[in-house]
Design goal:
2 copies of one chain form a homodimer. Chain A is mainly alpha-helical and about 120 residues long. The first copy, chain A, is built from 5 helices and 3 strands. Chain A has a 3-stranded antiparallel beta sheet with strand order 1-3-2. In chain A, α1 packs antiparallel against α4. The first copy, chain A, binds a DNA duplex (30 and 30 nucleotides) through α3 and α4.
Chain lengths: ~120, ~120
DNA sequence: CGTTAATGTCAGTCGTTGCTAACGTTAGCG
DNA sequence: CGCTAACGTTAGCAACGACTGACATTAACG
């Protein structure tokens, strides 16, 4: 079967996988900035930044607002929230696994598995 | 350039960007499975699965336990928690932005800080 | 209407990565 | 030992993605 997963969560997760895109997102999380201002914060060309911004916009992590020839961007909290929901789902599954180990530990003292260990 | 970010969060985020790796993670979130069992759940070769598991392990999202010639894997909740923390930081920034807009609507004026430049 | 400013888009290059096939490694069995 | 089973590892290839330079587009201004 096709493994070409194409939902919004996948797109947003893949967009966040890029360090440069995360930097852009942090930049526009505090203030609404124009494309030129964003590009000025990096050493790469404006073309690269424009493409990154397009990816972030398609992923629903960014909002575009036009003001004359300029285009202002800012982070979209809803997009981040969706990502956190996806992570929470996986986290719930892992927690279910951890709880199973804890229950097994109640009845058995032979196993030496460690769960929730800060390393 | 000096933008080669190499912390654990970056590695985990990039590991989760792959749909196949997310599927593996969901698989071992419910039960502890051997490498062969994981590979049997997909159409790709065992080699590909082994490499994906290595990536997930290096990202701190997986735990390896050896039993004879077999290697059992299960999800590590801490790794997911770190990712959620990273997302929460970004989310906090976006919320700060939203709160600023709300305060502006109420007529309050606040001092803004300069944006950190990369480079 | 022509010019400039701000920005997006296209084609091509190059590093990265997910994949397969072949080989190496470790643990159990006789 | 030799043999088998369950893995990981390496080399090589094809696809994807990030980047740059050149061109297209849109809006203000005289």
């Amino acid at each position: 079967m096709g493994l070409t997963e194409r939902d919004a969560s996948d797109e947003a997760l893949r967009a966040l996988a890029e360090p440069r895109r995360r930097a852009i997102l942090r930049l526009v999380a505090h203030d609404e900035l124009a494309a030129g201002e964003i590009a000025a914060a990096f050493e790469v060309s404006r073309t690269a930044i424009s493409q990154h911004v397009t990816v972030l916009k398609n992923a629903g992590l960014l909002t575009e607002r036009r003001d004359g020839t300029r285009r202002l961007y800012r982070a979209r909290p809803e997009g981040l929230a969706e990502l956190r929901t996806l992570l929470d789902e996986m986290w719930a599954g892992a927690l279910d696994n951890a709880r199973r180990l804890v229950e097994a530990d109640r009845g058995l003292s032979d196993t030496d598995e460690e769960v929730g260990r800060a390393g």
